[in-house]
User: Fold Peroxidase from Triticum urartu.
Amino acid sequence: MSRLSMATLLLLSLALATAPRLAVVEAVVVEGLRVGFYNRTCPDAEQVVRDVVMNDYAMDHTIAPGLIRIFFHDCFITGCDASILLDESPSGDVPEKESSANGFTLHGLQTIDVAKASIEAMCPRTVSCSDILSFAARDAAVAAGLPSYEVAGGRRDGTHSRMDDLPGNFPVPGHTVPRLTELFASRGLSQEDLVTLSGAHSIGGAHCFMFSNRIYGFSKTADIDPSLDPAFAQRLRKMCPRPRPDDNPQQAPKVNFDERTGEKLDNAYYQELLARRSLLTSDNTLALDPQTRPLVEQYAKDDALFQQRFGEAMQKVSALDVIIKKNKGQIRRDCRMVNKARGVRWMPIHFLKPPKHPMLQMINWFIRGFQQN
Assistant:
């Protein structure tokens, strides 16, 4: 054996020894979905998505939490149908992405666009946007340090998107455990899934207006939420000025959920919860509520357990209300637009978009969340 081949084998052995261990998690079984769905029709599809995600992640690590967030926001409402990607809906409804829960806070849409365009150039009208989004969310989690997990394919894309589907049906920063549990149960997800998926906040961050209620004017008797670590609250105040009515939310500072390992998808998030260093009420409540605290404590001690269960929970989300039948969905050629039927011309639809500085709308959204606990 040549020195070159021996050196190559040695390097390969070292790489395999240090590579993240694949999570032993089989994809959730849903009739019509299967792992390797595109092995014959577009065998390089998943690799293309992976390459695009990893390329964007190399330039911008915030792509990882952005893609996971888009995926969750899509699947939680009408199922994993890529409706969140639509810029318009044939019905004329204001689309989901214009909601105050989405809007300018969505990050990673262009990554999906690039992946879709690349795949369309190789395999036209074959790979759905909803599958691309599911693959991309998995690859984003892996880029952030999670062991890989299987994602089945075979979803079709929806043909409508309604902003009005979100209010009352989606978790918001002000919700506490009872309301969060109720919402997750309505989607077939357990309280364990709630605690596990909240671990996505191990990466990424929140704009100051999402938690300013905890550090300014919390109650009649306390300006700061007493459940916050006092030193942490003071650091937040230095980063987040007291909000004013004319603030532009798009210019609001953003704070990492996890001060210590904010770019790694790990159990440090749960350790921060127990140390009373969380940003959102919906995170803090997991450590305060006696029903969810035991699992928070368990994850805080066992990173491997959290990572495995996070992959499992993401698989469950990826199977929510998927569209399988051809007469119920389509394979969009452009993830931002529904395919036009041959011979059919759409009249341009102009809907009223939210104002450029929708602070009042966002505040109202979060206040509704505070009241529905």
